[in-house]
Amino acid sequence: MITLLHGPDDLLRSEHLATLRAALGPAEMADLSMTWLDGRRTTVGEIRHHADAMPFLTPRRLVVVEGYLAQLRRRIRSGKGKQDEDERDDENDTPENLSAAAQDREHLLAYLPDVPDTTDLVLVEATAVPGNDKLVKALKRLAEQGQAAIVEIGRAHV
């Protein structure tokens, strides 16, 4: 299952992640099948490597990637002479027309349907991800097939 957990409420995001972690079983066993990745420094290859690994002493594996989509969007927008990913015509999405960041996004998009059934891949974002984002659109399609969930965490009430 792939989950996009996004929105500005730190407490609710933490509680949701704690629930997913608790579902793995006792803490000492859960830690063996859990990976946290800093999205500002990770690659699609690293995400795949950890997500494709078999769970160890637990029925499922949990891979949490924090801030990867925001980092991709920043890299895509800062690409020299490249259009924003939402403005480009999909017919022109050939590798030679894409920036390195856009290629990374395309590699992630291609991988999402292949995330193993034994892995919970959680993409955590501190801000709400726009509904017109290509990854959100892909996750919505996967959600219709029961392979993904999009959880928007609202702003904390003061």
What does this protein structure show overall?
Helices cover 38% and strands 18% of the residues. It contains 6 helices and 5 strands. The chain has helices spanning 10-22, 27-30, 44-52, 68-78, 100-111, 134-144, and strands spanning 2-6, 34-38, 61-66, 119-125, 148-152. A 5-stranded parallel β-sheet has the order 2-3-4-1-5, with helices on both faces. Helix 4 (68-78) runs antiparallel to helix 5 (100-111). The longest helix is centred in the N-terminal third of the chain and has 13 residues, at 10-22. Mean pLDDT is 86; it is low at 80-93.
Short description:
This protein has 6 helices and 5 strands; from the N terminus they run βααβαβααβαβ. With 158 residues, it is α/β, with parallel strands linked by helices. The termini are far apart.
**Strands across the major sheet, in which order?**
2-3-4-1-5
User: Sheet with the most strands?
Assistant: 5 strands, parallel
Helix run count: 6
**Which regions have little confidence, pLDDT < 50, spanning 5+ residues?**
80-93
The overall strand count is: 5
Mean pLDDT: 86
Helix content: 25-40%
What's the order of the H and E elements?
EHHEHEHHEHE
Using only C-alpha atoms, the radius of gyration works out to 16 Å
Task: Work out the strand percent.
Answer: 15-25%
Cα-to-Cα separation, first versus last residue? 33 Å
**Category from helices, strands and their pairing:** alpha/beta
Q: How would the global form be characterised?
A: globular
Strand-helix topology:
Elements: E1 2-6, H1 10-22, H2 27-30, E2 34-38, H3 44-52, E3 61-66, H4 68-78, H5 100-111, E4 119-125, H6 134-144, E5 148-152
Parallel strand pairs: 1-4, 1-5, 2-3, 3-4
Helix pairs in contact: 4-5
